[in-house]
Design a protein that fits this description.
Layout lengths: L3 E4 L9 H10 L5 E6 L11 H7 L7 E6 L7 H7 L3 E4 L7 H10 L3 E6 L17 E5 L14 H17 L6 E5 L7 H6 L4 E4 L1 H4 L4 H13 L4
Parallel strand pairs: 1-8, 2-3, 3-4, 4-5, 5-6, 6-7, 7-8
Helix pairs in contact: 2-3
């Protein structure tokens, strides 16, 4: 299994954002995770396409945009033009999930669904063939620095089984991402539950040496392959 580490700029120093994203990519990040909150779907307000466009020239890795907003469709083309490579959204925030997934792909991005800790997985039933990524929240969205919710591990196992069955039936590969409370001391357990892509915010950006944290995380992930 290929593992990917996606630092969330929600925990970065916004006064030095260009420098921050350059440094974290130099430290070994595979993606840059971009949290978009609207103070409507979630109780916080963060950043939009202009910031995405501003950091795009600073990084050569994919930008992974997580839309915690409603409505979704209006803003998708703006993020695609701003340089997003992957765009994920919450199914309950879209009036027409299939249409939103199609819109993201029409804009040239990979598409995925995001599930909050208490959101049921039945939204996957008829769109597995449309997905490039499934993101499971292991905290309730809105704020960084929260503690990992252990029940997310069982949910990860269920989704991993669904992805494996989909692939065994001839379907495409789908990344399984997890976001919330991911740290060096729990990343291996999360990987064993089925995740292959890991969003980490404060666990990386709160430390003085980003490379040391990323390397420590990769060392923990390597134990799951032995």
């Amino acid at each position: 299994m290929t593992f990917r580490i996606a630092p969330s700029i929600l925990s970065a120093d916004f006064a030095r954002l260009g420098e921050e994203v350059r440094n974290v990519v130099a430290a070994g990040a595979d993606l840059i995770h971009f949290d978009v909150m609207d103070n409507h779907y979630v109780p916080n307000l963060t950043i939009g396409p202009l910031v995405c466009a501003a950091i795009r020239p600073h990084v050569q890795v994919p930008i992974d945009v997580h839309l915690m907003i409603t409505p979704v469709d209006r803003i998708v083309p703006d993020f695609a033009k701003a340089g997003a490579n992957l765009i994920t959204f919450h199914p309950e925030a879209s009036e027409h999930i299939d249409r939103t997934l199609a819109l993201i792909k029409e804009c040239g991005c990979k598409a995925g669904l995001v599930f909050n800790p208490a959101t049921p997985l039945h939204y996957l039933d008829h769109v597995m063939d449309k997905l490039d990524i499934i993101l499971l929240m292991s905290v309730n969205p809105g704020f960084g620095g929260q503690q990992f919710i252990p029940a997310a591990l069982a949910k990860l196992r269920v989704v991993r089984a669904r992805i494996d069955a989909h692939k065994a039936a001839g379907g495409q590969d789908i990344w399984l991402e997890v976001d919330g409370g991911v740290k060096t001391d729990n990343i291996a357990e999360i990987a064993r539950a089925g995740a292959d892509t890991f969003v980490a915010g404060s666990a990386i950006f709160s430390q003085p040496d980003y490379a040391a944290v990323v390397q420590a995380m990769r060392k923990e992930l390597a134990t799951t392959c032995s």
